[in-house]
Amino acid sequence: SQTIHQWPATLVQPVGSPLSLECTVEGTSNPNLYWYRQAAGRGLQLLFYSVGIGQISSEVPQNLSASRPQDRQFILSSKKLLLSDSGFYLCAWTQPRTGHRIGELFFGEGSRLTVL
Amino acid sequence: AQSVSQHNHHVILSEAASLELGCNYSYGGTVNLFWYVQYPGQHLQLLLKYFSGDPLVKGIKGFEAEFIKSKFSFNLRKPSVQWSDTAEYFCAVNANGNQFYFGTGTSLTVIP
Q1: How many angstroms separate the CA atoms of B86 and B109, rounded?
Q2: How far apart are the first and last CA of chain A?
Q3: Contact B5, B25 (CB under 8 A)
Q4: Taking CB atoms and an 8 Å cutoff, what residues of chain B touch A49?
Q5: Which single residue of B6, B34, B47, B112 has CA 20 to 30 Å from B27?
Q6: What is the pLDDT along chain B (112 residues), one digit of tens a residue?
């Protein structure tokens, strides 16, 4: 069966420090991978998605970047964190599209980032 | 980019009451539609999904949703809610690409 893990679960970082959140998927190959940020009252905001190694699509301009160094690994990074980067970050995966159909999203447990 | 609107931000119901949560989207082409639920302290999980065919979709735990193409809507319903349905509910749309766009969510509180 497929599983998704992301870590760390909780992170407290000072403004200006770097960030690295990691997500890995097991039990599948060539998944689509996603990073979302969840904020109260604002739902889930799509940050990045990837359809393959080294292929990153950014949805919104921001202080964050993403990388996919391996098929089942997706990393969210920042060189210098801002206060506004605080939030709950979710990694998700799905099977690639077949015709009009795309599989459901499966979410990780989330990473709570507090920037002080 | 597509947009997804959930007009009910917070809903409070008594047990056994009927539930309907609204979801509207902006994309005019072929869409795949989803409802996700997040129970307190748990991760997001799929409630139901629509790809094609019968516009009335049945999901887990007695939930259903109706796709009305002319209204660009995919409302979630349950005839009789339970205390355990207290959660946050998210509508999501996928259309002709790999992106999934979510609404702002509706927080449901069911009072015993």
Answers
A1: 5
A2: 38
A3: yes
A4: 98-99
A5: B47
A6: 568 999 889 999 999 999 999 999 998 778 899 999 999 989 899 999 998 899 999 999 999 999 999 999 999 999 999 999 999 999 999 877 788 999 999 999 999 9
